[in-house]
Amino acid sequence: MTGLSSRGFPERAVRERARLGAAAAFPADAHYGHTLFGADPTHSDDPLDQLRITPPVFMPQRLEKLIELGREPLHTDVALETVIGGLRSTLPLYLSAFGSTRAAGTGQVLAASRQAGRLGIPMVIGENIVPMSGYGRGGEQTRRTALGRIAAYLDELPDGLGGVAVQQSTEDADAEVWNLVYSDPAAQPLLDSGRLAFELKVGQGAKPGLGGMTVLDRTAAARVDEQFALDEVFGPDADRVLRCSSPGTFTEEILRQQIRLMRNNYPRVKVWVKLHPGRDVALAADIAWTAGADSVTVDGAEGGTGWAPVATIAHSGLPLGECLARIGPRADCLLTSGRFWEGSRVVKSLALGATAAGLGRAALLATDEDPEAGLTRLVECLALELRLLISSLGKYAPAALGPEDVWPTPAPLAAAPAHRIPEVLRHG
Amino acid sequence: MTTTADAPTTRGLLLPPADPRQHLTSPTTRTVLRLQQHMLAAAREYLTGAGFAEMLPPIIGPVTDPGGRGSKQVDVDFYGHKYKLMTSAILYKQASLLAFPKIFCIAPNVRLEPLETANTSRHLAEFHQIDVEMAGASRDQITAVLEELVRHIVSRVVTDLPEEFAALGRDTSVFTALLNQAFGRRTHAEAVAELIGLGHPQNPDAEIDWEGEALLSGRAAQPFFVTDYPKGSRGFYDRESAQDPGVLRNFDLLAPEGYGELCSGSEREYDYARIVTRMRETGENPAKYGWYLKLVREGIPASAGFGIGVERFTRYLAGLDSAWQANAFPKLPGVVSP
Question: A92-106, A261-275, B234-248, B255-269: lowest mean pLDDT where?
Fold first, then answer.
């Protein structure tokens, strides 16, 4: 080096790329397996963060509640039970998919599954779990398998509540994850009680338009090289390689027909669809619902726990608030994920049309803090905040929230009807 | 209807005896298998006479028919590579037309069907098909072949095996309409409308469900075709209509008397770009169909074909309660058997 410098230019980053090559497109390799990725909130331009919750002075729904109860209502009178994509939940919350990233350790994943079951909220099992970790039958020993997680969840799940949504991506289709689960005796209790959903994964928030990525050592990579593309971004001599899933090609017709085929092939499951925060997210969500999806999940650009290029984390995809504004209020079930951990963000997204919010990074951090009860306590706190905030708006159920409950009202929502149809009525 | 003596039942349904000796030595089984042997001989007689070449089908391959309705494929470890047992020979049937313009095979198929299908009386995890494929054929041409083939088989067994039918208690006068009249024909949309009219909640975008098929079948006096299934209910190889997008140039043949589907068939997609697009529409990963897509890209003949379920066809002719009674070593979905 000559000591050449360039003031005002990202010199350090340029020099890092000059040293590391393609590996510098990703967060530092040393953090892999110890860090949950996803957008940095200090750089968030999410409209949700700019909103304020707006309790009115006059509250006709509080009067209705007062008449019903015969006493003044309190925050404890808020009923948080919600139907999420056809599954009954104690709260407008669900456990998001963690994918196959190693940062989600086996112990944490199982602890989170157990606690989600105890809480009676639905749980999503991520893509690539079966090709990477196995299903859990035929002598596979690891407890991280899909069956291991389902068993941990079911052990604690109360009757009639919760349910499991199993994702399938393009590579999962090779492993026939849905066919496997649908014909498996171990999944029959979920099927028989109507608590099994399949989630078609179209995309994810942290890397919109790209497939899943994990870093593997060369031995693990050799096991899956027929199913996945491997990229030597860390150099030919490095002991680790990048494993890439394909994102899968979608057109309007491909999405429509895949959903119809899911309904045709698996008539006993609920059909969920997960979208990345694409610029055409409203059209994609509309196609999914029209084709018969029970639920559409939008993963905002703030979402994700796994390995992603720094460029997409920082610069790609619409913020969740903008996605909600583009979709607008619908009578259909809309799930949201992306940096949820406390009550105000959940209330804001419910006000903008969401039915429930997913916990991803927050659930992993909470179980890392306390494997036995960390997630339970986090959710207890969140549920209290939900009750306080919803009752402060003079409302007593999540489905009663509307765009009038936040300020400033996002432009596409300004002309929307004040009240949505409660989820419970739609499924009744 | 005929049942095997002393057969165990569950939820009111007849199950195969756990002891293969009991099943194989049962007079009913022996009579049914004799009938089936005669059906296969008649099928070969007709197809060979009509210029179809008999091919021996592959049992394993890197990829097989993705199937539908939630059935799982069986993985085979082929020297460290994941292969599949054939769920159907469809991809190989299309490829076989590079050797002969008209082919047939009598092929075993293995499908790990969802557990609930153990109760339909019609599903076996291992079963056989009379598979036929014909280069350059239209749907009308291939359904004519199917109709003649079925009529030939039924005529043969009714003429040659009166004692077997008597032993099974099956009155062969039920086949009079089949032998003397053209098969009925209705579109999927018409079938859906009929079912909804009967109070059956049939999804118009999906296959006719099992209860719906049984309802339609129970009201019919002779076999009938259901045509024009919607895209989203069948595999990528059933050809989409150029004139009517979203509708497939395919068909099922349903037996009367409540016996339900005997056969599925279609004109086939053969254009590379259309097949890749249809693979995505059915959620498939084109990468795993490498050998097939290479063949298609270099050109395969346009064709139409069908597969008749041997055990289902036998069940209908013999008037059996369940398809497993027409198999020497029956395997019901989820039931551990010899």
Answer: A92-106
Put simply, whether B219 touches A (Cβ < 8 Å) is no
How many beta carbons lie within 10 A of that of residue B338, not counting itself? Answer: 14
Percent of chain A with pLDDT over 70: 84
- Give the per-residue SS3 of B74-119: CEEEECCEEEEECCCCHHHHHHHCCCCCEEEEEEEEECECCHHHHH
Residue B47 or residue A180, greater confidence:
B47
Query: Following CA atoms A70, A76, A78, A79 in sequence, which dihedral angle do they give, to the nearest 10 degrees?
Result: -100
> In this structure, what are the phi and psi dihedrals at residue B337, rounded to the nearest 5 degrees?
-140, 165
pLDDT at B11: 44
| DSSP characters over B239-286 | PBPSSSTTBBSEEEEEETTTTEEEEEEEEB---HHHHHHHHHHTT--G
Task: Tell me whether residues B205 and A268 touch, CB distance under 8 A.
Answer: no
Structure-block tokens of residue B294: 């290479």
**Residue A371 C-alpha from the chain's centroid:** 21
What average pLDDT does range A320-334 have in this prediction? 94
DSSP characters over A71-82: S---GGG----E
Q: What is the ipTM of this complex?
A: 0.88
Question: In this structure, which CATH number among 3.10.450.590, 3.40.50.2300, 3.20.20.70, 3.30.450.20 belongs to the domain A41-212+247-427?
Answer: 3.20.20.70
CA-CA distance, A55 to A404, in Å (whole number)?
9
Burial of B81 (0-12, 13-18, 19+ CB in 10 A): exposed
Residues 4-23 of B with CB under 8 A from A: none
How many CB atoms within 10 Å of residue B318? 25
Residue in chain A nearest B63 by alpha carbon: A174
B62: contact with A, CB 8 A cutoff: no
Distance from CA of A179 to the nearest CA of B (A): 5
Query: Is the pLDDT at B63 greater than 90, yes or no?
Result: yes
Eight-state DSSP code of residue B236: T
pLDDT of A187 reads 87
% of chain A at pLDDT higher than 90 = 55
Among A173, A166, A131, A174, smallest CA distance to A149 is for A166
Spatial separation of the C-alpha atoms in residues B195 and A211, rounded to whole Å: 42
Interface of A with B in 252-271 (CB under 8 A): 253-254, 256-268
The residues that bridge with B247 in the sheet, in sequence order, are B230
Sequence letter at residue A84: I
Residue A333's pLDDT is 98
Chain A residues near residue B240 by CB distance under 8 angstroms: none
Domains of chain B, earliest start first: 9-326 (3.30.930.10)
Give tens-digit pLDDT for A29-50: 666 666 665 555 555 577 899 9
Q: Domain residues of chain A, as ranges? A: 41-212+247-427
**Mutation target vs A (from B11, B73, B83, B115; most A CBs, 10 A cutoff):** B115
Q: Note the pLDDT tens digit of each residue in B33-48.
A: 999 999 999 999 999 9
| Separation in Å, CA A309 to CA A103, A198, A213, A331, B130 | 16, 28, 9, 36, 52
Q: What residues contact B222, with CB distance under 8 A and at least 6 apart? A: B177, B178, B181, B183, B184, B256
Cα torsion B214, B216, B219, B225: sign:
negative
For A326-339, letters b (16+ CB in 10 Å) and e give: bbbbbebbbbbbbb
pLDDT tens digits, one per residue of A246-290: 888 999 999 999 999 999 999 999 999 999 999 999 999 999 999
What pLDDT is recorded for position A420? 42
Q: Which among B114, B209, B277 is the nearest to A182, CB-wise?
A: B114
Contact A252, A165 (CB under 8 A): no
